[in-house]
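Table S4 entry, Metallopeptidase.
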Amino acid sequence: MEELIGWAKEIRKEFHKIPEIGLETVETVKKVKKIMTGFGFTVIPIEKNSCVCILKKGKGEKVLAFRADMDALLISEETGCEFSSKNEGCMHACGHDMHISMALAVGNFAQGYDFNGTLIVIFQSGEEGCDGSEVMLKEGKLLSKIPKPDLIYGIHVWPEFDVGTTVLTKGPLMASSSFFQLQIKGKGAHGSTPQKSIDPILIGSQIVVNCQSIVSRLTSPFDPLVLSVTAFNGGSSTNVIPESVKMMGTFRSYNDQLRIRSEKVFIKMINNTCEMYGATNKIKLKGLPTTTNDEGAIDYIHDLAKEVSKKIVYDYQTMASEDFSLFLHKIKGAFIFIGCKNEDQKYVNKLHHPKNLPSSNALGYGIKLFAKIIEKHLK
């Protein structure tokens, strides 16, 4: 096992050097396919630049799946590590290079382990806001191309926790989310004659203020909801009222129905405010359900996690979101966090930070847990 972990640490460096964005993980998936084919897996390409790897041994009918995301972020790396990104303006700042390495190590382990059943390892592009899992499931028709898994597990490295920590949460782990893009179109005018305008900045500002009442006055304080306007762009001159503004933001909740209901109220508020001033609007909304772990799937691996971990954390939740949630709506399973805090003070232990470099020592804990799950489920 230690030799396997050492191999994973080296392969992690290779993938960290070649980060790719969104659904365009061309070189990454090419490398993954080559490695997994070498381990004896049947590799099936899936839309877009994703793949699913299948290995069957014996006559067992049980099917176990693992999933790893592969895409990186549009962030210029500032870690200064010896295996820094070679792709300018792009880096693995969310630990997906770690996820790839652990999943490949599962393949490496499986080739030499005499299990009984079918092992499926899914490598997914486009997790970072590009609908990667939806593309795999809908456009790629993933579930029609593989045996239906009994269980599916995913892992995410989490820098909030020390190496050796495993997070096992039953029920909601990560928030349901919606992302909105809003354009308000009014009527431009000279800054000295606002009466001749339909001022989209004023209208947008009222929407920013008023939408906070959706959280403070239309939602129970016992049911967490976040509504953040994260961008507001319009105008480029000191004396010109612009014709339009653009806004972006997000909803977050552990309650899918609350999020959907809040979206409807938000849209009604936008339409009413724009109508009152004579403006028009266009809004785009897309969302992800809550990442909800099946209680049985957590119970199933609890003792295995205790065996390989230094510490178990229960009932942790985060308002971050994750498109693995779509897999969990189709297949019984769970999403696990693995502590990866880097003790080197020159790094910053925050996801999506240019100085984030998860400790490679975390890899062993994920690999050992995956291996234990294979040994238990495919015996």
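The radius of gyration is 23 Å.
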